Amino acid sequence: MRITIFGTGYVGLVTGACLADAGHEVMCMDIDAQKVARLKQGEIPIYEPGLETLVTENVGQQRLLFTTDAAEAVAFGTLQFIAVGTPPDEDGSADLQYVLAVAKTIGQHMEDYKVVVDKSTVPVGTADRVHEAIAGALGERGVSLDFDVCSNPEFLKEGAAIEDFTHGARIVVGTDSERVKALMRECYAPYNRRVEKLMFMDVRSAELTKYAANAMLATKISFMNEIANLAERLGADIEQVRRGIGSDPRIGYHFIYPGCGYGGSCFPKDVQALARTASQIGYDPQLLNAVEAVNDRQKSTLFEKLGQAFDGQLDGKTVAVWGLAFKPNTDDMREAPSRHLMEALWAAGARVRAYDPEAMEECRRIYGERDDLTLVGGRDEALQGSDALVICTEWKSFRTVDFAHLHRTLRTPVIVDGRNLFEPDQVRAAGLLYFAVGRGDSLRISGRPAH
Ligand code: UDX
């Protein structure tokens, strides 16, 4: 079938490439002409494993088209996916201006029946507003055409987006219309073969499902981080506690890894937006607020542990940072714990030598040239002349370490590990001071216990 996608950001591009690869004819529309020109050449503006190949192949097969022409885009598909950004505005609510602008564009150009599919993560009630915007634009033209709006949230993880799209646990569609259900069935048929994954529900429930999923996952992480902080203070080991509770199938092993806080484009933004929605309707979202507050505090723990190691004397120190991206297999640094750490270090007068397998360019783009930031070409280089090492991202290539070498290279033998990559006994046996998350005592440089 013919499908139009508005927005060639992360979600739009993955959706477009996957649907084209499944045999549909897809046209992706973006107002950014430069971006569209690059995409036509198969140049991908983001790092996502497998995406470049998928785009290049399907552009070559002419199943995946790119355009900046709104009229052409609206005319192309019966399904019109809206996959544009919903950045947080000043108070943390989702800013709908781009979504509503696309809705208006569709209303201005459509000539026959369309199903408008909200793919962007949008607050409950947005489908109604999209409906109004389209109806308004049609009204201005003085035409009356039939159309439907449905909600079809995405559950893509960065770094595994193609796998998540093609083999996701469920495909949620919010609609009451049988016509829409049939069209969405046809759209997703290639991914709905052996197990029934399509879940039809009313529009508002579909919109809320997306927020509820992300808020639940964020809650699990904040909960574990809180227990980890308690474990640290109580002399327990969170990694053993994690295994102990994960074995209960009611709890499960997923998303209970303690760390230095969740980041990325979804959890922080969506938890905040859901909390704002709650407040706007007069409901006090106590748990959501706590999830956010615990996460903010967790991001500070890396800096605090360094402070403990050095008795608060970080001025003039140089700190090696391994990992800048908010998680492995992406170059995305949005809301990354590394940023929180580096900014705190700079404010305290320390310098940073940082390395990330993918996010170096992104880091350069965000922070530009600074005297107190040196971006180096490898993890060993980051250690040269550094007083301590902090691990912010659990890239696979950081997992194997020669601790004796590390001890020889660092000026002072301090490791702050925000991802619990190593066994504390092994690290400490090499004479290093090791501060992990929720894993018992370490010592200050001065020799006094840190906790
Ligand atoms: C998330 C959701 O998983 C996805 O379904 C949704 O569509 C978008 O948001 P993403 O942001 O790409 O995807 O990353 P994810 O792998 O879920 O990790 C989010 C953050 O949580 C990362 O910072 C990660 O380090 C952290 N995390 C994850 C933990 O700290 N502990 C865990 O146990 C799991």
From TrEMBL:
* One Gene Ontology biological process: polysaccharide biosynthetic process
**Root EC class:** oxidoreductase
Name one molecular function that GO assigns to this entry: UDP-glucose 6-dehydrogenase activity
Q: Name the keywords, alphabetized.
A: NAD, Oxidoreductase
Annotated residues for binding of NAD(+): 30, 35, 86, 121, 158, 269, 334
Q: What does this protein do?
A: Catalyzes the conversion of UDP-glucose into UDP-glucuronate, one of the precursors of teichuronic acid.
**Protein name in the entry:** UDP-glucose 6-dehydrogenase
